[in-house]
Automatic annotation (TrEMBL):
Enzyme Commission code: 2.1.1.228
Broadest EC class assigned to this enzyme: transferase
Residue sites binding S-adenosyl-L-methionine per the record: G112, I136, G137, D138, Y139, V140, L141
Family: Belongs to the RNA methyltransferase TrmD family.
Domain tRNA methyltransferase TRMD/TRM10-type, first and last residues per copy: 1-228
Subunit structure: Homodimer.
Species: Saccharopolyspora gregorii
Keyword Cytoplasm: yes
HAMAP family membership: TrmD
Location (main, coarse): cytoplasm
Known role: Specifically methylates guanosine-37 in various tRNAs.
Name of protein: tRNA (guanine-N(1)-)-methyltransferase
Catalytic activity annotation: guanosine(37) in tRNA + S-adenosyl-L-methionine = N(1)-methylguanosine(37) in tRNA + S-adenosyl-L-homocysteine + H(+)
Gene: trmD
Compartmental location: Cytoplasm
Amino acid sequence: MRIDVVTIFPEYLAPLRAALLGKAIEREKISVGVHDLRDWTHDVHRAVDDSPYGGGPGMVMKPDVWGEALDEVCGSGPQPPRLIVPTPAGRPFTQRTAVRWSAEPWLVFACGRYEGIDQRVVDEAASRMPVEEVSIGDYVLVGGEVATLTMVEAVARLLPGVLGNPASAEQDSFSDGLLEGPSYTRPEVWRERPVPDVLRSGNHAAIARWRRDRALDRTYRRRPDLLERLPAEALDKKDRAR
Ligand code: SAM
């Protein structure tokens, strides 16, 4: 998968080359390009923002600079990419989004700052390529860089060969619509707190049932909205008996 990011703070994207993502780049599972939006300015101040039409606080990112940047970055492949525009006003980014994007050959992220990017940039790009405006949660960050890091990490770990053990992604929270239950490792007793007996029993069926029950309990307490959205066939007889 190819990933390009356009930003006014390229240094903010340094973690893209660290840890798991860095290894994925080394193993050529993903290639990453980070582009400085100011490279497409033509004035001495390298301005990327201007005051909003209609008045109001803050500044808006200029369409001409973004337009040229996206023409060049998105026009550099045989097919146009999927353009992702992080914004708190977007549709929620979820694990389902990450799974869908993990099948894409090329994603381009356009990181906004200030009050965001002139809407015409998004609308015009949508006439030439698939575009999604997405939010990583109901809060407001100062820029799209952290949102992009979040989304790239969620997508990259789903690509074949990126995680050491692919089964861990299959068992994670959200993969079956539930939150994952608690995990434990050695020592068996820590600060007078023992690991649950069943996990040391070697009885795989009992362990699977215990994990499923803990996942159901945790989801019920912390995210009842997930249970409400679960299709009826996702729950077995024992689940329903709880
Ligand atoms: N005026 C915008 C609004 O109220 O919807 C907020 C702009 S925010 C201060 C600046 C930039 O941060 C956005 O263009 C976007 O790139 C990024 N951003 C902030 N919160 C975000 C979120 N929850 N999800 C994704 N991106 C976000």
